## 1
Amino acid sequence: MVYIGEKDYERLVEHCLECLPMEACGLLGGIQYKKKKQIKRIYFLTNMDNSAEHFSMAPKEQFTAIKDMRANGWELLGNFHSHPASPPMLSKEDIRLAYDISISYLVLSLADPENPVLNAFQIDREKNVLKEAWKKYVLH
């Protein structure tokens, strides 16, 4: 289960809308306890492909994000990208490029910008895709 703060979720949607018509992408840092992943920070990274159908995260920005996670005692919990005009599903390319089975892969569909849809997935060693539950939470 992936837990994302309500304000972080809103920032994620806002950032992805700002990146239209291109895909947005980034990393998710936080803490994990058993199968519960609590996102503490979303790292919005540059899509080096500058494409509406592909993304590549800027390597230097990835390094900076991982360094910040470590400084805060967090770990890499996952990554995200947006689909400007298609459903919130992983593409064959997304699955092929997924090398880390320990993280979550989030996809935000903006096919209907007024009603964005977020899905989370796990990918196993055999490249099977498993839908993962996620939930917004409110910080007190």
## 2
Amino acid sequence: MEKENKVPCGNTPEETADMPEKEVKTEENPPETAEKESAEVRKLSEEKKKLEAELADTQDKYRRMLAEYDNFRKRSARERDGIYADAAMATVAAMLPVLDNLERALAVETQDEAFKKGVEMTAKQFYDCLEKLKVAEIPAEGEQFDPERHNAVMHVEQEGVDDNTIVEVFQKGFSMNGKVVRHAMVKVAN
């Protein structure tokens, strides 16, 4: 017995060749599909706009935070410099009475030259330290009175001297980097 060879898909090649071709109708975009696609495009467009707005908002927050951090860093640096300057001024102000006492010691006559020489050297060293710290003496005697730099503790009538001229200094004044550490205590002519 001989078996027939059948093609499992249904038609044999000879049968397929004899069949007329069927027309297949394909529409490029049926109306329902076009509406679905345009709805999807609108939805994607809305999502894109939302994401762009979110991105812009996030970028704005980032820029603001960056600016705040930069301002914080600058403010901290200014405060740190200010704290150093204030501490240095307070230290200098605390040491100025020692300088006043050294100058009083130099003003007193003594027979001991070695002692006098030692006090002079100590006072010179003190002035050198003040100079390194950029501490300067405030000019006073013969200058016009300036309430920002001088402290008038006495007024006198004196002929031959212009009004508001400093005629005597009781205590020297000092400034550091343009700021007054201690006002000069002075006598002013009226």
## 3
Amino acid sequence: MVIDGKTKTCGLIGNPVEHTMSPLIHNTLAEKMGINLVYVPFLVTEEVETAIKGASLLHLHGLNVTVPHKSAVIPALAEIDPLAEKIGAVNTLVSTEGGFKGYNTDMTGLYRAMASYGISLEGEEVILLGAGGAARAVAFLCGFYGVKKVYLCNRSVEKGKLVAKEVNVGLEKELVIPLGLEEYTKIPDGKYLCIQATSVGLAPKDTEVVISDPAFYEKVHTGFDLIYRPANTRFMQLVKAHGGKAYHGLKMLLYQGVEAFELWNQVKVSEKYALEVYEKMKGAMGIEE
């Protein structure tokens, strides 16, 4: 592509950003769709609000936000989407006349990723592992898309109770039931969709798992791990060993990027282009499915 005075500049802020796959997603989509846009990572270690002000003054077209800044950027925004406001985290900033507007495409990206595998949330009962920012967002997503019940299992019961209260108050219904990790036996017999929303199992500690008891995995018909590196986590291995289906989070990364690209450029990315990008992502990671 030719970079000129009309090139839109987008990027990612976070710490670290060295190993991000986001440039592959956005630069590939820009090339395929003939959009004059370039995407680069920006390392931001502190003074997040100052960084956002600088990005606005530089007329950056849009930004993605990754850890640890997804909540810290909120005070610097001119506007925030209602979904992102409820979740309390943003990952996509869109330039407006008054500044940046914040969105959360992580969760809508997760929804699209699960839908691509034929996973439906409506009417489902879910076991959610974790009580961090990602788990909190997943719990809200479950509420928005018609999940009947969420059993939130976390090492710290108190933290789980706090997240459950925040989500239940925000959704105005008693959706989330907090449990300790060892209390999964209190979950009624049945088969559940289980979403793994902790960092446990992330490479290089890919032999670790939140719950190791084989009896737990007898309750799981489908496991979705937000982690995508490694592509076959210990959690996924245990789900499959007990007859369930299991998926990693690379498509979530894909679709959150696709949705950000659509917001920045007011376009619709075809599924054909999205899947072509996904193949490039798998190639970059050496993943075979």
